[in-house]
Amino acid sequence: xxxTVFQFEGTPEELDTSxxxxxxxxxxxxxxxxxxGGDRDGAPPDRIPGVADEGQETxxxxxxxxxxxxxxxxxxxxxxGWENVGVYGIKRKNAPTDAPLDYTRYLRLRxxxxxxxxxxxxxxxxxxxxxxxxxxxxxxxxxxxxxxxxLNTGHREYRVSIDLRNEASLTDALQLAKLAYxxx
Length: 184
Prior knowledge:
Helix 4 packs parallel to helix 6. By secondary structure, the chain is α+β, with helices and mostly antiparallel strands.
């Protein structure tokens, strides 16, 4: 992967009138630029951050039924900005080797190069995030993450979940996702 970053300084007027910036912005090399915000009517954005082309339409459809699509997209936009984070669909058991990944149930956020699985599983349709943390409710309360809850079922390593419903839940999800990311 190649990432090129440019930083420009100047007043908004100077940047708006710069012919060089205009030419750079109009060049199309590589993937489509990331668009974080959706439409004003709450529709998902044209491009879901981190999701491969093959999963874009599926995730967009799931987000159309989500209680908080904009918070889910913001969560993905933030976490995919962390070093070496990838968003993946799921390879179904017994699927042929050439079968595409499945994006219908959840997305796995994984730190590339990690020996662990994903640090978070993100459910677009429900705007829910399950994190690779095995913490008690008391520990979560000590972190100040009041919107997180513990799960009693499922894999023992993924026992913390957050439903994205408001800014506080997004803040908690990002704080705990960073903790899970750092541990993988």
